[in-house]
Fold Carbamate kinase.
Amino acid sequence: MGKKKRIVLALGGNALGNNLPEQMQAVKTTAKAIVDLLEENCEVIIVHGNGPQVGMINNAMGALTREDPSHPNTPLSVCVAMSQAYIGYDLQNALREEMEIRGIENIPVTTMITQMRVDANSPAFKTPTKPIGHFMTKEEADNAAEKYGYDMIEDSGRGYRRVVASPKPVEIIELRAIRSLVDDGQLVIACGGGGIPVISKGKYLKGASAVIDKDFAACLLAQELNADCLIILTAVEKVAVNFGKPNQAWIDHMSVSEAKKYIGEDQFAPGSMLPKVEAAIQFVESKDGREAIITLLEKAREGIKGDTGTHIRK
C-alpha cells in the first residue's frame, strides 16, 4: 500500500457537541470520519477543541466553590486537563468501536494528557480577550476580580464574564512521548483544547490562566511530528471570500501568497476562519511539500483524496 501519509487532524467544536449526551452521540460520527482516513492509508493524530466542555467544567467547579468555600477555586489549567481526559475517553471508545466494526486491528488508541508551554511575556497576557465561564452581576464580577484576580468584562449587555489570554503555543511538553506512540503505530489524541497552558518557572511548570487556540496547537504538533498534511475541520466545506455576501466565492486551492492577500483584505473573520487560515499558512511555510486542508468533518475522506475542501500549498 506504500508509505502512510501522516496527518494531524484538528477537530472543531461541531465534532463533539455541547454537553455530555451530545458528545457521546457526536463522537460516533467523528469516529467514522477518522476511520475513513485510516482506510485511505493515513496515519492520524487528533487534536480537538474543548470550548463547551471546559466551560461546563469551569462553571461546575466554580459553583462548588461558591457552595462550599472550603473547596478552593479550580485553576483553568486544571479544568483543561479534566476536559482532555473525558473527551479522550469518549473518543477512544468511539474509535475502538468503529475500527472493530470495520475489522481494523492492531491500532491502539491513546489519549495523551498534554501540557503546552506558552511565553510568560506574551503580549496576549496584557490584553486578555477570551470570555469563559458563567455570566455575573456587577457585584459578583467585582468580587471575583478582588478575590481571584480575574479580568472581567461586560459582555454585550448580558452580564459580566471573566476573560483570559490566548497566547500562541511555544513548546509541547509531552512531545517525545507523543512521537514515541505515533511511531509505534498508535492512534494518538493529544493537545486537547490546545493543550494545558503552562509557563516555565525555572524547573517548574506553572499552570497559566489562558486558552490556547487548538488550530495553532495542531499546527505546532504537525510540524514537530513531521506530518505531511494538516487537516482543519470546521463547519463549512471550503473557505470562501466575501463570505455571506452576494459575490461569495468558494476556494478550492489557495497559495500562501493568495491566503496572505485575503488576510490583508480582512476576508476571514477573527476568532473564526482567520486563525484556521493563519495556522494553515504557518504549517505549509514550515517545510517544502507540506499541505493544509480546511473542510467539513464529514468530507475529510474526500478532502484527502483531493475531491473537496480548500487546499493550501506554497
